[in-house]
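Bit of a strange request maybe. I'm writing a small parser for structure token strings and I need a real example to test against, not something I typed by hand. Could someone generate the tokens for this chain?
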Amino acid sequence: MPFLIDGYNLLRSVQKHDQYADLTDVQLCRYLADFLRAVRDRGTIVFDGVGPPDKRELMGIRGLDIRFSGDRSDADTLIEWIIGDNTAPKRLVVVSSDRQLRTAATRRKAKSVPVDIFWPALCKTLENRPGTAPEPREKQKGVTELEADVWMDYFDLGQ
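Reply from user aminoacidic:
Good idea to test on real output. This should exercise your parser:
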């Protein structure tokens, strides 16, 4: 498990950017799974709490182990336990800006990467994948009313 990611720490940091202000935990996990496939590695993301009641969307994400700390603990405690329990900590990359987690990683000689360094690197990796072009902003925003009218006319779906 080379990447160990502090879920809400990364998500909240990413959401500060206008482009990702509405990013959900599920979307974040999909980005991470795509990144892990691109770098041919694996990872675990840990979120606080028990997670959404319906976890089907998260279960369909391959290549990323998604964990929730439960209602009796928090993500930081679980991440520290995973760092301490790891049999090859020198290979582990801990992604968090939390000082306590970064210290725990350093203590075990794991690599520690703050989220504000990790996210741009992830985006650059995904943009540079061969055969994939970045999605146009228009795709996320949808078509304009004028464009919709043109398509309605084209397909003779009168209004």
